[in-house]
């Protein structure tokens, strides 16, 4: 059921199920992330057979047709959200509709259906501990509502979860560049050196950067910085996190370095970017 925000006296259309029994999926009027932490399931998703073994993720829309036919020692949890939860702003009753209001876009491809998206994204071994931690924190925040920014924190972790899953599923190739991309997407919040990336790829600096230029149009470190800025931009737009917290969450370490990179790459400060992305709007 929707959550009652006791701090801001409003309905928040999300739900976290700590013990997901997989019987009622998909949930009506919701998109749902099901995180399978142990065991396995077999079933049909939109008349297509699926098998998911832990650790696994199932991404469902309200229009999907899901049937679980076999469960083997399954433990799972789920987070579901109404489409309006992706809206960053909430206009007051006296304000007119503002059609350009920002909306979370990260990870929406996970809920598309086609030859490359079928509801069961890939999870790497390195990604599992992060996903487990982020799901745990989201579930804790839904229950605890620790302060008036609890919804912001849930949006932060939702952006990070869906962003990581989306990046991991851009390509299923097994190559040195893909290994480094997986490493970046799961470790960008930490301190990363070029030596770390060359060790991950088992290549020297020149060869790695040459392959990255061919694949991504920039060097390995250049890609790392652009990915950090991408996540930081989402957090600036869709949460009320401080610059210091965003810097730490995206690997810039200090807000001064985040400001420097924003000015250099986007031609404006993070504060100016945040204001421009929310013009005429009020954050949720």
TrEMBL record:
Keyword line: DNA-binding, Transcription, Transcription regulation
Top-level taxon: Bacteria
SUPFAM superfamilies: Homeodomain-like
Listed InterPro entries: Homeodomain-like_sf (IPR009057), HTH_AraC (IPR018060), HTH_AraC-typ_CS (IPR018062)
Xref: Gene3D superfamilies: Homeodomain-like
Residues in HTH araC/xylS-type domain copies: 178-276
Molecular-function annotations in GO: DNA-binding transcription factor activity; sequence-specific DNA binding
PANTHER family per the UniProt record, alphabetical: ARAC-FAMILY TRANSCRIPTIONAL REGULATOR, HTH-TYPE TRANSCRIPTIONAL REGULATOR EXSA
This protein's name: AraC family transcriptional regulator
Organism in which the protein naturally occurs: Paenibacillus sabinae T27
């Amino acid at each position: 059921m929707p959550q009652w925000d006791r701090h801001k006296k409003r309905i928040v259309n999300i739900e976290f199920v700590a013990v997901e029994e997989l019987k009622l999926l998909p949930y009506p009027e919701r998109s749902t992330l099901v995180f399978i932490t142990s065991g396995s399931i077999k079933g049909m998703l939109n008349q297509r057979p699926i098998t998911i073994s832990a650790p696994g993720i199932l991404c469902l829309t309200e229009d999907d047709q899901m049937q679980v036919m076999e469960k083997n020692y399954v433990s799972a949890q789920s987070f579901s959200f109404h489409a309006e939860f992706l809206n960053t702003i909430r206009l007051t009753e006296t304000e007119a509709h503002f059609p350009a209001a920002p909306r979370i876009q990260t990870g929406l491809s996970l809920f598309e259906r086609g030859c490359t998206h079928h509801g069961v994204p890939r999870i790497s071994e390195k990604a599992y501990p992060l996903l487990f931690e982020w799901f745990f924190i989201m579930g804790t925040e839904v229950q605890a509502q620790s302060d008036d920014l609890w919804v912001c924190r849930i949006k932060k972790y939702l952006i990070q979860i869906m962003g990581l899953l989306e990046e991991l599923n851009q390509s299923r190739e097994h190559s040195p560049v893909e290994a480094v991309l997986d490493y970046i997407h799961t470790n960008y919040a930490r301190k990363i050196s070029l030596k770390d990336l060359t060790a991950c790829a088992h290549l020297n600096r020149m060869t790695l950067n040459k392959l990255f230029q061919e694949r991504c149009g920039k060097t390995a470190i250049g890609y790392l910085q652009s990915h950090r800025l991408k996540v930081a931009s989402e957090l600036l737009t869709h949460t009320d996190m401080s610059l210091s917290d965003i810097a730490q969450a995206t690997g810039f370490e200090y807000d001064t370095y985040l400001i420097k990179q924003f000015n250099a790459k986007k031609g404006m400060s993070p504060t100016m970017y945040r204001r421009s992305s929310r013009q005429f709007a009020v954050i949720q």
